[in-house]
From TrEMBL:
GO molecular function: ATP binding; ATP hydrolysis activity
Domain ABC transporter: start-end pairs: 31-261
InterPro entries from the UniProt entry: AAA+_ATPase (IPR003593), ABC_transporter-like_ATP-bd (IPR003439), ABC_transporter-like_CS (IPR017871), ABC_transporter_ATP-bind (IPR050166), P-loop_NTPase (IPR027417)
Lineage top rank: taxon: Bacteria
Keywords associated with the record: ATP-binding, Nucleotide-binding, Transport
Protein name: ABC transporter ATP-binding protein
């Protein structure tokens, strides 16, 4: 079976045919969750989650509503800490993290480019980028998502899909190597959602971005199979990892890949799992 991997240096896709990939390559983790449990007050949410997120992979997370998927991302972002005994371990070259939420959360009084510049002037970014660099980074990021001509538009002058592209540009502007996405396209119509799915894959595959790893929470089985290398299936709360299902589809993923026999087989396997949750 042909399996495609993203080459670390160039970002180009390589077909490795008839090779047992698991044994041929030792995969390095970008982020590891080790024995992670977490409760809010007395309510247990995560129950001993163990997960390796590999460098250069596109990982999706599926699970019932309220099971703790966003909580898992917040652990990776260091916004929450696991209960005693749990650890979030980052890979050897300390990946930088970017985050995209379900809603774009743009400042309505700032233009698209000013929204991005603002994010580059906050927290640790503040020390990293001068004003001039922030402007250049913001312009570059807008170009990546194809919205350079809308840089002076305010959020209310942009469609929902365009606003979400600005949110992606904002996350990419600081050159993250790991991008965490919490149902980023959940609020969009199907047409826009599919378009942005392929745009995101193009950005991840492109040598123009520093992106190596994407972790995306989604409610859509179809989206998880179309986008990812592996799908993590979570159980209802208190949540653990039920299974991790590889998606043996070639890359680049394209429109029409739904006709690939592995697409329907993987969708079927995931549906069976969801039924038993
Ligand atoms: N800050 C908080 N304080 C108390 N409880 C919280 C907090 N944040 C989340 N929870 C609870 O933790 C559980 C998991 O929430 P989380 O948002 O991680 O789930 P989810 O799987 O992302 O849900 P959905 O798919 O509906 O977005 C829920 O029961 C929620 O009520």
């Amino acid at each position: 079976m042909g399996v495609s991997l993203r080459s670390e240096r160039s970002g180009h896709m390589t077909d490795l045919k008839e090779i047992n990939v698991t044994s041929a390559l030792k995969r390095e983790a970008a982020v590891t969750l080790k024995n992670c449990s977490l409760s809010f007050d007395t309510v247990p949410v995560l129950n001993n989650v163990n997960l390796d997120v590999y460098k250069n992979e596109f990982l999706t997370i599926l699970g019932p509503s309220g099971c703790g998927k966003s909580t898992l991302l917040r652990l990776m972002l260091n916004l929450l800490q696991p209960d005693k005994g749990g650890e979030v371990i980052f890979g050897s070259d300390s990946p930088s993290l970017g985050m995209v939420f379900q809603k774009p959360v743009l400042m309505p009084w700032l233009t698209a480019i000013k929204n991005i510049e603002l994010s580059l002037s906050l927290g640790t970014n503040k020390k990293m980028f001068s004003k001039k660099e922030a402007r250049e980074k913001a312009e570059g990021a807008l170009q990546l998502v194809g919205l350079q001509d809308f840089k002076n538009h305010y959020p209310h002058q942009l469609s929902g899909g365009m606003q979400q592209r600005i949110a992606i540009a904002r996350a990419l502007a600081a050159d993250p190597t790991v991008l965490l996405m919490d149902e980023p396209f959940g609020a969009l119509d199907e047409f826009t959602r599919e378009k942005l799915n392929f745009e995101l894959l193009r950005l991840w595959e492109s040598a123009e971005t520093s992106l190596s790893t994407v972790v995306m929470v989604t409610h859509s089985i179809h989206e998880s199979v179309m986008m990812s290398d592996r799908v993590v299936m979570m159980s209802p709360r208190p949540t653990g990892v039920v299974d991790i299902i590889p998606v043996p589809l070639p890359r680049p993923r394209e429109v029409g890949m739904e006709d690939h026999p592995e697409f329907s087989r993987t969708v079927h396997e995931l549906r069976k799992q969801v039924k038993h949750l």
